[in-house]
Write a structure and sequence with these properties.
The chain is an alpha/beta fold.
């Protein structure tokens, strides 16, 4: 098992992640940290002697400028494992998480990936606007969207979480164990994403990997996801990446026609912007509304003039 961790300036959260990996009932064979930061803090954490003392092999590589996909690809190229454990630098695994993920893959025929649950958050349900779309535009029965990717790249986990492993159509790059062979047959990460590639690269990879076998959501494998604030792009850039990358996945990975992919991007723009407006009215605050709207408008302009 090779653990693949991109990071940018989050030495403290990385330390917590490595501590949880060192405490695993089934320790990974190596951890490759792909560092996009411009200081030495992350390198110092990876070089701490305590990891070796606890049986954890940690390697550091520098990948600059920061780019989530390029960092992961560089780390995978340096790794040796039959299995790739894709993690963010701000997750903390329960002590038996790796064991459950590996068992899920090895004891189920045709399974190429295992997707962990979170112990500090629940999977969001669709908003009323998206629920209306799912029910009446797509004709889906209540809850049938769980574990699926539908429409303008809407992806859903399970709420409530099931008691046993169930199929899921996508994977998260912060919480998934995947067979290297399936990753390679799928062609690895796509290279068409915008800016730092932090939006929708996970669902894109999941859709490609799922063509080569089943991905299972494994509720027994659990971790906390703490969403460390450091190193993030601005809300405007995140919104632009989110919508533009959705269009690219729809167009290039799912093979939708340009008009169909653009129509779904416009639908996403309208519903999300409308939801933000309604949310602002309810809260009495418009904080963040304009940056997100401006970012989405830039994404649509990119699509039109690409």
């Amino acid at each position: 098992i090779s653990v693949i961790v991109p990071t940018i300036g989050r030495a403290d959260s990385l330390n917590q992640l490595l501590t949880s990996l060192a405490a695993q009932s089934h320790k990974p064979d190596e951890v490759i940290v792909a560092d996009g930061s411009d200081t030495d803090a992350v390198r110092q954490v990876t070089a701490l002697p305590e990891w070796n003392k606890q049986g954890l092999t940690v390697r550091h590589i520098a990948v600059r400028p920061p780019n989530a996909v390029r960092q992961r690809v560089a780390a995978i190229a340096e790794s040796q494992g039959e299995f790739l454990l894709l993690l963010d630098d701000d997750v903390v695994l329960e002590s038996d998480c790796v064991e459950h993920l590996l068992k899920t893959i090895e004891t189920n025929a045709g399974v190429v990936g295992a997707f962990a649950d979170f112990n500090n958050q629940t999977w969001p349900e669709p908003t009323p606007a998206w629920r209306f779309y799912l029910r009446y535009a797509l004709g889906m029965s209540e809850g049938s969207w769980q574990g699926r990717v539908v429409g303008p790249l809407l992806r859903f986990g399970y709420h409530p979480a099931p008691s046993t492993a169930v199929p899921i159509a996508w994977l998260g790059t912060c919480n998934t164990l995947v067979r290297r062979s399936a990753y390679e047959r799928a062609g690895g990460f796509s290279d068409f994403f915008l800016h730092r590639c932090t939006m929708n690269e996970d669902v894109d990879l999941g859709l490609k990997v799922a063509r080569h076998g089943t991905i299972l959501f494994c509720p027994q494998a659990r971790m906390g996801h703490f969403h460390a604030p450091g190193g993030r792009v601005t809300p405007a850039v995140a919104a632009e990446d989110d919508l533009y990358n959705r269009y690219l996945v729809l167009r290039r990975t799912l093979g939708r026609s340009a008009p169909a992919a653009f129509g779904l991007a416009v639908l996403y723009f309208g519903v999300e912007t409308g939801s933000n407006l309604i949310g602002g009215l309810r809260r009495g605050s418009w904080s963040g509304l304009w940056p997100r709207t401006a970012g989405r408008l830039r994404a649509l302009r990119r699509v039109l003039f690409a």
